[in-house]
């Protein structure tokens, strides 16, 4: 795949497509479903195309269906083995079938202007971690936000703080994660995002490595 998903702009003023990572399950709280519907309404209001995993189950289905019922655009990206398991949404604006989970994530990175993680499971965590790593390494300069419904990500964020305190995550990379429990506030911060400069932390890790 070509590296066309590299972003050279230091600030994204327009977000035409946002990729959302979220659960293929509904979760046990009604508030998760409500927030998915709320996010969808904001996408419709701001004419934002949803890019997501292409499933017809869980919060992913709620998000996609809400947008589609109101004539919005939804692009799904799904590996063919999952399509064969009949979990694909068949009424999307576009469904792109790829060969692997890794190809799916790379295409999500290429096609999207920003990323939002909602409550989800291991797949959501994997996709979130990859986009955060892409930011850290400046593979792309696109903002990554957490829509923190019911403090779902609280313990994950505390673990990130622990990783900073133990010297394995740079503080600037921890602070680079945009966290909000309001859709409007999250979208506003995504639009005003500025990436972390790479040269300083690379020099720092080289220096600390040579000192030991």
Descriptive keywords:
alpha/beta; Rossmann fold; seven-stranded parallel sheet; 46% helix; 15% strand
How are the SSEs ordered, and which strands pair?
Layout: E1 17-21, H1 30-45, E2 49-52, H2 58-69, E3 74-79, H3 80-84, E4 94-98, H4 101-111, E5 114-117, H5 122-136, E6 144-147, H6 154-165, H7 171-175, E7 178-180, H8 183-191, H9 198-210
Provide structural commentary.
The chain is an alpha/beta fold and 212 residues long. The protein has one domain: Rossmann fold, CATH 3.40.50.450. It is 46% helix and 15% strand. It is built from 9 helices and 7 strands; from the N terminus they run βαβαβαβαβαβααβαα. Strands 4-3-2-1-5-6-7 form a 7-stranded parallel sheet, with helices on both faces. Helix 1 packs parallel to helix 2. The N terminus is likely disordered.
Q: Tell me which CATH architecture applies here.
A: 3-Layer(aba) Sandwich
Q: How many domains in all?
A: 1
Biggest β-sheet: count, sense, barrel?
A: 7 strands, parallel
Average pLDDT confidence is 90
Short précis:
The protein is α/β, with parallel strands linked by helices.
């Amino acid at each position: 795949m070509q590296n066309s998903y590299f972003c050279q702009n230091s600030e994204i003023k327009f977000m035409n497509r946002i990729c959302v990572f979220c659960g293929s399950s509904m979760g046990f709280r009604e508030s998760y479903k409500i927030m998915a519907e709320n996010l969808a309404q904001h996408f419709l209001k701001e004419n934002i195309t949803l890019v997501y995993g292409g499933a017809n189950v869980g919060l992913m289905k709620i998000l996609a269906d809400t947008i589609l019922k109101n004539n919005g655009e939804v692009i799904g990206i799904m590996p063919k083995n999952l399509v064969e398991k009949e979990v694909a949404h068949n009424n999307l604006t576009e469904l792109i079938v790829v060969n692997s989970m890794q190809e799916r994530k790379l295409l999500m990175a290429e096609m999207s202007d920003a990323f939002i993680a909602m409550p989800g499971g291991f797949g959501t965590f994997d996709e979130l971690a990859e986009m955060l790593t892409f930011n850290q390494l400046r593979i792309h300069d696109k903002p990554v936000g957490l829509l923190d419904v019911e403090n779902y990500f609280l313990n994950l964020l505390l673990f990130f703080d622990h990783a900073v305190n133990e010297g394995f995550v740079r503080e600037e990379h921890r602070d680079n994660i945009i966290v909000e429990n309001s859709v409007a506030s999250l979208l506003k911060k995504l639009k005003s995002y500025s990436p972390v400069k790479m040269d300083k932390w690379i020099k720092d890790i080289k220096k600390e490595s040579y000192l030991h």
